[in-house]
Automatic annotation (TrEMBL):
<dbReference type="InterPro" id="IPR002347">
    <property type="entry name" value="SDR_fam"/>
</dbReference>
<dbReference type="Pfam" id="PF13561">
    <property type="entry name" value="adh_short_C2"/>
</dbReference>
<dbReference type="InterPro" id="IPR036291">
    <property type="entry name" value="NAD(P)-bd_dom_sf"/>
</dbReference>
<dbReference type="InterPro" id="IPR057326">
    <property type="entry name" value="KR_dom"/>
</dbReference>
<feature type="domain" description="Ketoreductase">
    <location>
        <begin position="8"/>
        <end position="207"/>
    </location>
</feature>
<keyword id="KW-0560">Oxidoreductase</keyword>
<dbReference type="GO" id="GO:0016491">
    <property type="term" value="F:oxidoreductase activity"/>
</dbReference>
<protein>
    <submittedName>
        <fullName>3-oxoacyl-[acyl-carrier protein] reductase</fullName>
    </submittedName>
</protein>
<comment type="similarity">
    <text>Belongs to the short-chain dehydrogenases/reductases (SDR) family.</text>
</comment>
Amino acid sequence: MERFLDNKVALVTGGSRGIGAGVATRLAEHGADVALTYRDHADSADAVAERIKGAGRRALPIRADSADPGAVTTAVDRVVAEFGRLDVLVNNVGVFPVAPLESLDLDTFDEAMAANVRAPFLAAKAAAGHLADGGRIVTIGSHVAERVAFPGFSIYATTKAALTGLTKALGRELGPRGITVNLVSPGPTDTDLNPADGPNAELIKDLTALGRYGSPDEIAAAVAFLASEGGAYVTGTTITVDGGFNI
């Protein structure tokens, strides 16, 4: 695999499983040293770290709860302290509350906003002070920000739609430094939270133009492009990787 990220340092939040693990591994395969945060799954984080090391790169798992504002900032600072720099921030961590409107409460709303919106904002704010000119910020959104095909997504869709505004605003603000800020919005992706053989999988597949789930590595490929020199003129926008779910 082409090593166009040699001598770069990346931080992937929520990098122990699913899309985050795919992104962390792919960036390492392209040459980056990679730090990843996790909250509960230390074994999974260690396994991803071993894959990063297997690609010949340095790895740094960091236990951090993205719902804790202090932990978000501390994680960014620790990466810079241990690796000496930060070039790519990938905001991947998030929670996935799905329930009928009448059963949702304020605590659930606040928790989702804290993890899905406040944490990417705080991570970007902390990273901006360390990123060299030409740095990259990529946030993982969701296709449900554009199309809500099923009931129960009121909170989740709200948080993911908010990331569009955040991405555009940060892209404008950091653009003079050559720092690009973009959003990658996956469609149905085969992870442990939404497996391709799950109870509603056949219906979900039928709603995509390609008739299948994506893989974490396919989402990671879009992130890697945005992190590369080829993505230097792309900012403030959304790349939707959803197999045609939203067309």
